[in-house]
Amino acid sequence: MNDTTARERLVSIGASLFARGLTGGSSGNLSVRTDDGILITPTNTSLGRIDPARLSVLSAAGEHLSGDRPSKEAFLHLAMYRVRTDDHAVVHLHATNAVAVSCLSDVDDDDVLPALTPYFVMRVGKVPRLPYFAPGDPAAEPAVLAAARRHRAVLLANHGPVLGAATPEAAADAIEELEETARLYLLTRGMPIRPLTAEQVAELAPRE
Ligand SMILES: [Zn+2]
Question: Is 185 an active-site residue?
Answer without folding.
Answer: no
